[in-house]
Design brief:
The structure holds two protein chains of two kinds. Chain A has one domain: MetI-like fold (Orthogonal Bundle), CATH 1.10.3720.10. In chain A, 82% of the residues lie in helices and 0% in strands. Chain A is built from ten helices and no strands. The radius of gyration of chain A is 23 Å and the shape is flat. Chain B has two domains: 181 residues, P-loop containing nucleotide triphosphate hydrolases (Rossmann fold, 3-Layer(aba) Sandwich), CATH 3.40.50.300; 66 residues, no CATH class. Chain B is built from nine helices and nine strands. In chain B, α8 packs across α9. Chain B starts with a helix and ends with a helix. The chains are: A mainly alpha, B alpha/beta. At the A-B interface, α7 and α8 of A face β5 and α4 of B. Bound molecules: adenosine-5'-triphosphate and magnesium ion (MG).
């Protein structure tokens, strides 16, 4: 009995923070310390979320943001992984582009908005490409890093068994770089989401969570704004969780 | 052999040698490790390599096995080149030599896949090997799910499955506990008796070096020379009794004297 309670308790522990946050929010709202217009009750936010998703446009916005993020991330991964492998396999090639990669990796992606607007116009392309660009550099850098730091002993072992350089690449180095590749993919998808949301806010958009957020703010629909913030947070969290799950499945030997 | 070669390398080629090394040279960052090094490894013998830390034991077997280039001299395998000889190598650090993304059995199968053997032939070879190795753990596990001794068993099996003509082992037991080491020595000895594969075994344990060997190669400090190349011909299978056998004790004392003289020198 006590064991069962203990298990239930440990399953509920992570929710404690959520309960505390909601309680504080409710208290703050009730105390009147903050204008009720600026800080509606949590219940109002949840109603806005429900209504937004069931009858309003928020489900569509959510899906639009997911779609753009997926496209941007997909392009980045499809280009970034092979390029990263090629760069990582040749230290000389990598050194020759290292500075450029590092430079643009350190450049805030938002600073690239104007350029991409000029190149691709105000449509979806500019948003998606700018997010791809940011995610690409993160993925590429991590993949190349993983390839360069592949365990020498495993490569030697494969060579001693007569593996050709191409086989070593496919059978050893690719796998050796997977843990680092996943770090790149996870950071890449987070960054893509950030860029897409910001782009939806400021680059002429008529849908997407970013657009819904900024519109709610301008129309002073605070519950909707909080609901959109929550939806964006849930999306980011969900993507992270998905990649962590995928990583545990694929890189089952990681850290052991 | 041509006369010209014999002039260049005064030591004649031994007819029963599996590996013939003549005039081997290797330099690291300007300081020589090997200069004009000659060695014969007899066919079907176990040669233990013993010497002070950093004298170049790993370097020697890495060069002979082709994992590391050498700067000069010749390494011949019964007159063949390295590419014409089936070699296998067991690394000291099995944790970093096995592929953790493959199950143990797939690790063992990997070199057979590289050889391009059909699946049924791969299975036949693995079955045959399993019969001699008496493996008592689940080979469908991943390496990180196995103990150190089990992992090193897998990496030795991966080396043996290609039925090599020469097997190189660089301190294969140094990461194992004493009990496991004893078991692995005997397992390796059984493999040797059944297959007669030529072995070069690096060991930092003099007792082990002698126990396993037909010939014990004692090396000096850098630049490395042969301090002695001793014979040990106790019958196999050797066992705990071998370790207290007068011939063994005497040889061990002799080797130790040579080693201490060379290290102090
Ligand atoms: N890649 C390298 N670059 C420079 N020096 C090296 C390199 N590899 C080995 N050496 C040097 O060559 C010498 C021989 O190294 P090696 O690893 O063969 O020694 P060892 O006899 O196997 O030593 P240990 O008993 O520690 O295993 C050492 O002095 C080492 O410092
Ligand atoms: Mg060594």
């Amino acid at each position: 009995m006590t064991a069962r309670l203990a298990r239930l308790g440990s399953a509920l522990t992570p929710l404690a923070g959520v309960v505390v946050l909601l309680a504080l929010w409710q208290l703050l709202h009730l105390s009147g310390a903050v204008d009720a217009l600026l800080l509606p009750a949590p219940e109002a936010m949840m109603r806005a979320l429900w209504n937004g998703f069931v009858t309003g446009p928020m489900a569509f916005d959510f899906l639009q943001t997911v779609w753009r993020t997926t496209l941007a991330f997909g392009i980045a991964a499809v280009i970034g992984i092979p390029t990263g492998i090629v760069l990582g396999a040749s230290p000389q090639l990598y050194r020759s582009v290292e500075f450029v990669v590092d430079f643009f990796r350190s450049t805030p992606a938002s600073a690239m908005f104007p350029l991409f607007l000029v190149l691709f116009g105000v449509g979806d392309e500019a948003k998606i490409y700018v997010a791809s660009f940011g995610a690409l550099l993160v993925i590429l850098f991590n993949v190349a890093y993983g390839v360069m730091n592949a365990r020498k002993t495993r490569i030697l072992a494969a060579r001693s068994m007569g593996a050709s350089p191409a086989r070593i690449m496919r059978d050893v180095i690719f796998w050796e770089s997977l843990p680092q590749t996943f770090i790149g993919l996870r950071n890449g998808v987070s960054l893509a989401l950030v860029i897409i949301i910001v782009a939806e806010m400021f680059i002429g958009s008529s849908d997407g969570l970013g657009h819904r957020l900024i519109e709610a703010q301008m129309l002073f629909r605070m519950p909707t704004m909080y609901a959109a913030i929550f939806a964006a947070g849930a999306l980011g969290y969900g993507l992270n969780w998905l990649f962590a799950l995928l990583e545990r499945r694929v890189v089952h030997w990681g850290g052991r | 052999m041509t006369a010209a070669l014999r002039v260049a390398h005064p030591r004649p080629y031994a007819p029963d040698a599996e590996i013939t090394i003549r005039g081997l040279r290797k330099t690291f960052a300007g300081s020589p490790v090997y200069e004009g090094f000659d060695l014969d490894v007899p066919k079907g013998a176990v040669v233990s390599v013993f010497g002070p830390n950093g004298c170049g034991k790993s370097t020697l077997i890495n060069m002979v096995s082709g994992l590391m280039p050498h700067d000069g001299g010749q390494i011949l395998f019964s007159g063949k080149t390295i590419a014409q000889t089936r070699l296998a190598y067991v690394f000291q650090n099995y944790r970093e030599a096995l592929f953790p993304w493959l199950r143990a059995i797939e690790n063992i199968r990997y070199p057979l896949r590289l050889m391009g053997l059909p699946k049924h032939e791969q299975d036949r070879r693995i079955e045959r090997l399993l019969a001699t190795m008496e493996v008592r753990f689940d080979l469908s596990r991943y390496p990180y799910e196995l103990s150190g001794g089990q992992q090193q068993t897998v990496s030795i099996m991966r080396a043996l499955v290609v039925e090599p003509e020469v097997l190189f082992l660089d301190e294969p037991f140094s990461a194992l506990d004493y009990e496991m080491t004893l078991a692995m020595r005997d397992r390796l000895q059984r493999v040797f008796m059944e297959t007669g594969v030529t072995m070069m075994l690096v060991s930092h344990d003099l007792e082990e070096a002698i126990y396993m060997a037909d010939r014990i190669l004692l090396l000096t400090r850098r630049p490395t020379r042969i301090a002695a190349y001793l014979d040990f011909s106790a019958p196999r299978p050797r066992s705990a009794e071998t370790l207290t056998d007068p011939a063994f004790v005497a040889l061990k004392r002799e080797a130790l004297e040579i080693f201490q003289r060379e290290v102090r020198a």
